[in-house]
Amino acid sequence: MPSARRDRWLALALLLAVLGLAYLLLVHPWFTQPLREIDADVAALREREQRVQAQLQQQPQIEQRLRATREALQQRPGFLREATAEAAAAALGAKLQDAVAMASPGNRSCTISNRTPLTDNRRDAEFVRVAMQVRLRCGVAELATVLHSLETGSPRLFVDNLNLIAQRFQQSPNESGLGLDVSFELAGYLLPGAAADGSAPTPAAEPVSAPQPPSAPPAPAPAAPVEGQEVADET
Predict the structure, then answer these.
(1) Assigned fold of 85-195
(2) Composition bias, kind Low complexity: at what positions (predicted)?
(3) Which of 73, 75, 130, 183 could form a disulfide bond with 88, CB atoms 3.0-4.6 angstroms apart?
(4) In this model, does residue 112 exceed pLDDT 50?
């Protein structure tokens, strides 16, 4: 009797071992492990959905802050307001002239000798740079006023490659003969997208030819001499 009971327990243990081995070899790698991976993916997707929902709930606040930032930038524009580089270059020249006139009324102590627009040769630049080469003849105080007015105004302008040379002679009757010969680059940047909108090609107008004056009638050919007239002349 004890041996029969022991055989039953041994058979039961062997059955459990076979079932466990079958589970480890057949059920777990083919069913349990893939299901666990699916559960992990579902949990990750739910967490991501919660983050997205939280961000979507913050959309009104973000849009409000974005509008406030845009309004602040419009009140203090850093970019040139013109639509094209040509118009921006003209605006740069006008701002320079106003700054010089404010620093030296009547151009007695500061005058513009030359200003030449420069082309932007940078490739793949994010912002279009509008610049001009400027040459002034100014006193020290007037030059400081001009540069301060240009660099602290609105929109933001930049002074690069500043060169100063002492001047001891008089170039024109309006100059005092004392001061500095100054050359620098005055630059600003166009608003992103403004240059692309302003540079759209416009259809070229067809050339209209000027009306040609009527051609003069051809001169009449000289009449051929008559034979009778020649004989009369000879006689």
Answers:
(1) Alpha-Beta Plaits (3.30.70)
(2) 195-209
(3) 130
(4) yes
